[in-house]
């Protein structure tokens, strides 16, 4: 069985490499915290087990936030492109320009491919979070983090960005817009008959 860190490194989108959860660093930090004796009081140079555990949590929160914000940024970029593409499609329909229609069709396909890449990105990151939380909770049963990272109640002070990664509302809207645009383009082509070769 392939180690997840290697699978993550192999599967990541090259241009987004620094936008993925740093699973390897989190795993190393967790391992180091476990090497500290539970009874160590911090009287020497090193951190206590508790301070190392808190550092792990802080880094995990920062990594999840990084992933969530990048995910939202990419959704926004796709939404903006779709908004512009809608106007381009309308212009192409009104002018009857077959080449413009072909370009719009290619743009919708390209956006669809980027949505697939973005969904792959989020799936890899969610798996990384799930795996690192499982490792943490296995070793720190009395300080399990999984439930606090899944908190969605507004009143909670330990709110996490993790639920944002499981919300596909933005992606669903983008997919619906692509499908709708392609459907409208197809009906426009069918009605005018001008673009049937595209």
Would you write up a description of this structure?
Helix 2 (23-35) runs antiparallel to helix 3. Residues 152-157 and 193-198 have low confidence and may be disordered. With 198 residues, the chain is mainly α. 72% of the residues lie in helices and 0% in strands. The two termini are 46 Å apart. It contains seven helices and no strands.
Give the helix/strand layout.
Elements: H1 4-11, H2 23-35, H3 49-95, H4 98-139, H5 146-149, H6 162-165, H7 169-192
Can you give the helix content as a percent range? over 70%
Please, what is the average pLDDT?
83
Figure out the total of helices: 7
**β-strand number:** 0
As a whole number of angstroms, the C-alpha radius of gyration is 23 Å
Beta fraction: under 5%
Low-confidence stretches: 152-157, 193-198
N-end to C-end Cα span: 46 Å
Tertiary shape: elongated
Elements, N to C (H/E): HHHHHHH
Q: Which sheet architecture does the biggest sheet show?
A: none
- The secondary structure category is mainly alpha
Please give a quick description of this structure:
With 198 residues, the protein is mainly alpha-helical. Helices cover 72% and strands 0% of the residues.
Search tags:
198 residues; 72% helix; mainly alpha; 0% strand; 7 helices
